[in-house]
Specification:
about 170 residues; mainly alpha; Arp2/3 complex 21 kDa subunit ARPC3; 6 helices; 2 strands; about 0% strand; membrane; Folate family ECF transporter S component; transmembrane; transmembrane transporter activity; ECF_trnsprt_substrate-spec
Length: about 170
């Protein structure tokens, strides 16, 4: 894939991710429910871990510039990059396998989205009682993560299969 095509895909996926994250999601102070993971997963499938990490980080940075929700915190940018890295490592240049989607989704939803994002929120909101704040945020985020997990698997699987078909029918190079 040429550098120009990669740059165009990164730009398109960042734009898609920003729209899905900042404008087409349900937000509370603790939980954001949306489907922005589709853009990051597509970047991981098409472009690999490094470019997908950039897409994840840029979605956070550009999204904050367009529609800030509170103070800027670099921890969320790190989480976005880690989402892209996990999708890229597990899904890029591979044949579609359900266990890969399950693993990538579990890492994204529970480890990065659950533990790490809860940690960032606790750092932003806590004073002296850090452990209590972290525990309450983590417990609040568990139910939405459990509900969205199967949706995430189904959508990523569908995107992956569609991109595989596109690769062969449109002669898009790997």
């Amino acid at each position: 894939m040429s550098k120009t095509l990669k740059l165009v895909l990164v730009g398109l996926l960042v734009a898609l991710g920003v729209v899905l994250t900042r404008f087409l999601s349900i937000e509370t102070p603790i939980v954001r429910i949306g489907i922005s993971f589709i853009a990051i997963a597509a970047a991981g499938i098409l472009l690999g871990p490094v470019h997908a990490a950039f897409v994840g980080a840029l979605i956070d940075i550009v999204g904050y510039a367009l529609k800030p929700t509170g103070p800027y915190f670099p921890g969320f940018t790190i989480s976005g990059a880690l989402h892209g890295l996990s999708y890229g490592l597990l899904l890029h240049c591979r044949r579609p396998r359900l266990w890969r989607v399950l693993t990538a989704s579990a890492i994204s939803a529970f480890i990065i989205g659950g533990f790490l994002t809860s940690l960032w929120l606790a750092v932003l909101q806590s004073g002296r009682a850090f452990a209590a704040v972290y525990q309450s945020i983590l417990l609040t985020r568990v139910l939405p993560a459990l509900v969205l997990f199967p949706v995430q698997i189904i959508l990523i699987w569908a995107v992956w299969k569609s991109l595989e078909k596109l690769r062969f029918t449109a002669a898009v190079p790997k």
